[in-house]
Amino acid sequence: MAGLRTETPAPESIVLHGQSRVLEIGFADGSLFRIPFELMRVHSPSAEVQGHGPGQEVLQTGKREVGVVELEPIGNYGVKPVFTDGHTTGIFTWEYLYFLGSQQAELWQDYERRLKEAGVDRDAPMAAAGGGHVHGHGCSH
């Protein structure tokens, strides 16, 4: 499939489980991952979450109950989830989904460490961004 590195196995199945809030994705190498929507949301590859460069990441909170209402296919290389909190700008390539699935334990530990360092609770509402707005990523500032 286009957009995949040769070492990334091709996806063979993808299922949204709304009740348990996980994306289940199977790859050609036999890997089957159940990626929680919360993990996807807090590690979204969007500029809103990742910022526009190193050190500009925006720590996401209050995403434990986030859902995914739709997965929009993006070419042959990934999907764009529509999250229930209105976030729609992250394009998740097959390679990135494989990374999220295979590195879940480490990513959760890193997320919990970042929360602790920031002195913020995982379920705290998102703080207002620098421009005083709660949603959006404010590229125009």
Task: Please provide a written account of the structure.
With 141 residues, the chain is of the alpha+beta class. The chain has a single domain (11-118), classed as NE0471 N-terminal domain-like (2-Layer Sandwich), CATH 3.30.2020.30. Helix content is 24%, strand content 23%. Strands 1-2-3 form a 3-stranded antiparallel beta sheet.
Unreliable stretches (pLDDT < 50, length at least 5) are 130-141
How does CATH name the architecture? 2-Layer Sandwich
Query: What's the structural domain tally?
Result: 1
Mean pLDDT across every amino acid position: 86
Backbone structural class: alpha+beta
**N- to C-terminal separation?**
38 Å
What layout of secondary structure does this protein have?
Blueprint: E1 11-17, E2 22-27, E3 32-36, H1 37-42, H2 47-50, E4 68-74, E5 78-83, E6 92-93, H3 94-102, H4 104-118
Antiparallel strand pairs: 1-2, 2-3, 4-5, 5-6
